[in-house]
Amino acid sequence: MSEKYLEDFAPGQMYRSGRNRVETDRVKAFASEFDPQPFHLDEDAAGRSIFGGLAASGWHTAALTMRLLVESDFKPAGGIVGAGFEELRWPLPVRPGDELYVEAEVLEVRPSKSRPSQGLIKVRTTTRNQKGEAVQISVGNLVVRRRADPRKG
Amino acid sequence: MSEKYLEDFAPGQMYRSGRNRVETDRVKAFASEFDPQPFHLDEDAAGRSIFGGLAASGWHTAALTMRLLVESDFKPAGGIVGAGFEELRWPLPVRPGDELYVEAEVLEVRPSKSRPSQGLIKVRTTTRNQKGEAVQISVGNLVVRRRADPRKG
Predict the structure, then answer these.
(1) For B67, which of A34, A80, A81 is closest by C-beta distance?
(2) Closest listed residue to residue A19, CA positions, set A62, A68, A69, A75
(3) Chain B: nearest CA to A30, how far in angstroms?
(4) Contact between B79 and A143 using a beta-carbon 8 Å cutoff
(5) pTM listed for this prediction
(6) Per-position pLDDT tens, chain A of length 153
(7) Which ranges of A58-107 would DSSP assign to H, the alpha helix?
(8) What ipTM is given for this predicted complex?
(9) Residues of A in contact with B80 (CB under 8 A)
(10) Whole-number Å distance between alpha carbons of A118 and B15
């Protein structure tokens, strides 16, 4: 559970989070504040929509994914700081009652050329429901501290 | 403000949202629930972090962007339904007190080959603060209904 520096990461490393159950009232509360569309708020309207039933906002799934990741053993030094994503998609809707967990895989590790005190790691996160189905896939780059400034080496 | 079908969209169309002020208590409340890291929760810890002061979670910015978009004149028939993003980044931190607005530009319009009742539009959204600086940029594809099934036409 200790903090990990850039030197501690390597491609192929996998992390797995705990689980979080998605409750109906939280789906509706998130949607009311951030994504007030009928298919996230009302069962009847959702049944007539493209989702065929109440579905969590994709941004709710993204936020829950972040929570699961922050609470996992994936602990970059300086925190989980996203520089940006090159992929973010939701292959299946998240339904009330689903239990989500996150798998994070390190794809690349790169020292920064301009900032010797840090680097970037590319990470794929896959958020899965209780059946193991992927409900969110992202590929993003995180800023991670180096253990020591190599110029001082 | 009427709903727009695939046939109503064309590359180059621009939409601009209203404004939303980011309050300190909301930054901390969102972070407490979804992104509990010190630089989103505590001014002193944030001052010592990579952000140099309290900053909203990127997922909070993303969620606020969605809210602004849902309330704007950008009204695809069937709702704003994201198929996925190919870019999502946060060039600058969002600070408490910032007032955000969103610009959405239609980049591409494509009928679906497999589903004649719908298509995809590619949209770039740029979320800006009160100085006009970009704090979030995304490029994503949205599912949009066609006005009529062309097979029936």
Answers:
(1) A34
(2) A68
(3) 9
(4) no
(5) 0.95
(6) 689 999 999 999 999 999 999 999 999 999 999 999 999 999 999 999 999 999 999 999 999 999 999 999 999 998 999 989 999 999 999 999 999 999 999 999 999 999 889 999 999 999 999 999 999 999 999 999 999 755 554
(7) 58-70
(8) 0.94
(9) 37
(10) 38
